[in-house]
Amino acid sequence: MTVADDFLQASRRFLVDEYPRKIQRAVVGMSEVDLWWRPNDVSNSVGNLLLHLAGNVRQWVVHGLGGRPDVRRRAEEFARNGGLSAAEALTVLRRATDDADAVLAGLDPARLEEDLEIQGLAVRGLDALYHVVEHFSMHTGQILYLAKMRSGTDLGFYVVDEEGKVVDTRW
C-alpha cells in the first residue's frame, strides 16, 4: 500500500465514519429550534453547517475529484433558517458523504497529483481532498460545540481510565 492509498483510506474513514458519527450523536435528538438557532447574525446554525458540509463535500469530492456535475448552491446553505428536522438534515449530509465515499473508493491515486479547478480555485487533487477533510473537521467541532451549548450535556465520546488513557470510544 502506498502513502497515497493510505491517505485515501484515512480520508474516507474521517469523512464517512468518524466525523459523521460524532455529528449524528450530537444532533440526532436536537429540536428544530436548536437545530436552526444562531448565536448571532454572522454565525451559522447547526442546520446551516450540515447543509454547508454536504455542499462542500459534493463540490470538492463528487464534482472536483469525481468529475460529476457541480450542483452546489452555496448561498442556499447559509440562507436557510428552518424547514428540515435534524433527521432530514443528517440525511442530506449522509447522502453527500455516501456519494463522496463511492468516488474515493474508486479513485485512482494518481488523480491526487492532477491539477483541478474547484470553486474557481486552482488546486491539485491532494489539496482538494486535504481541504475537504480539514474543512469537515473544523465544522464538526463547531457543530459539537453548538450541540453541547444548546443541550448542556457532555457528548461522552471517550472513556478514559484512571491514567487518562482512552479505553473506549463512543461515536
Task: Tell me what the structure shows.
By secondary structure, the chain is mostly helical. The mean pLDDT is 96. The protein has a two-stranded antiparallel ribbon with strand order 1-2. A two-stranded antiparallel sheet has the order 3-4. The protein has helices at 3-27, 32-35, 46-65, 74-79, 86-105, 125-151; strands at 115-118, 121-124, 158-160, 166-169. A hairpin with a 5-residue loop joins strand 3 and strand 4. It has a single domain, classed as Up-down Bundle (Four Helix Bundle (Hemerythrin (Met), subunit A)). Helix 1 (3-27) packs antiparallel against helix 5, helix 1 (3-27) runs parallel beside helix 6 (125-151) and helix 3 (46-65) runs parallel beside helix 5 (86-105). It contains six helices and four strands.
Question: What structural keywords apply?
Answer:
single chain, 171 residues, mainly alpha, Four Helix Bundle (Hemerythrin (Met), subunit A), two-stranded antiparallel ribbon, 6 helices, 4 strands, globular
Please summarize the sheet with the most strands.
2 strands, antiparallel
User: What helical percentage do the residues reach?
Assistant: 55-70%
Q: How many helices does DSSP assign?
A: 6
- Structural domains: how many: 1
- The secondary-structure class comes to mainly alpha
Look at the structure and give the CATH class. Answer: Mainly Alpha
> What's the overall average pLDDT, rounded?
96
What spatial order of strands do you see in the largest sheet?
1-2
Shape: globular
Question: Which parts are unreliable, with pLDDT below 50 for 5 consecutive residues or more?
Answer: none
Order of helices and strands: HHHHHEEHEE
